[in-house]
Model the fold of this input.
Amino acid sequence: MTQGLVAINSWTFLAQMLNLLIQIVLIRKFLLKPIKEVIAKRKAISDEELAVARKSRAEAEAMKAEYESSIANAKAEANDIIQTAQKAADTRGEEIVAAAEKHAASIKAKAESDIEQERKKAVNELKNEIGGIAVDLAGKVIEREISEKDHQALINEFIENVGEAS
Amino acid sequence: MDVDITGAKILAEINVPFLSKYLGVWQLTETLVVSWIVMAIITITCIILTRNLKVENVSKRQAVAEWLVELVTNLVRDNTGGTKMDWLIPLVAALFSTSVISNLISLLGFRSPTADLMTELAWAIIVFILITANKIKSMGILGYLKDFTTPIFLMTPFNILGEVFTPISMACRHFGNILSGVVINALIYAALAVASSALFGLIPGAVGKVLASIPILDVGIPAIAGVYFDWFSGVMQAFIFTMLTIMFISQAAES
Done:
């Protein structure tokens, strides 16, 4: 038993409508949805990897900047240290030189005063001795009695002359 | 020799309680059974294609599945402009695959479900419902009704006819192409059988009688006609029906 070549059949019509709707659901469930999910998953993974790469790049750049700044800091610090040390050394050297100069000056001053003292002492000693010698000599050369007064005046005059001569 | 070209075979008649009062006896036709076979083929293919999907290192199977999905997605998006009509994708995929497999299943000796007008009419009515729903959605019910009176009121009957004949023309276009293939195939088979028996009947004696009773020319030669009527026309009509569906619905949504 067959249908006509062009037949109207409400059952077939309704069933074919239903079949198409079922086919839509089946194709969605078994083809479109799983493929969409896997593509979305792939996209999520690549997005995530991209984000991670971006982040690590930013981190690397930050680290590089930090490293460079710390290097620059270290250099500046080293320069500072060197400068401070140089300055300290300079000051210290100057101090030492100044102290040495001062010391030398004091030694020189002391030596000078010692010399002066010694000189004065020697002059005094010489005065006394020469006074005695002069008196003796005078006594012996002149061999005459002179008054103590004349005597003393003579001595003083002599000493004065010696003092001027020395 | 008589050539008898008929519609689908009726395999069973089932009296469904209650529903048969309105729709008549349910005739289980070849159309329905082959439709179910087509649906099974499509669904099993989908399941096989999407088995054990992976994110990386995709198999050839998965590559084909992704390519198909991308193809139908791009077809819809290129013709509707953007992603706002993505809900059409499952419909388009189902329509195209069902249509192509239905048209080509005649190569396996089945009667195409698409050689039954009811199949195409059912699809076209679903498309028509979607067209109308989208028109009403974008214009409002009053705007939709008012659209029939444009450009002048006199055009109203023609506009209504144009609207109603959209699904009918879609259905008949597809059906007519497939039916013509069925008819011409039947004619070619019959003609070649006659030619075969006439040709081999020329051989004298018992050999000629035996050979003349076998339609030898029917082997291979109809396949040449099948290249156009089954392959080309089958794929072409599926494509046309799908494209019209996309066009009409996207137009309706934009009106």
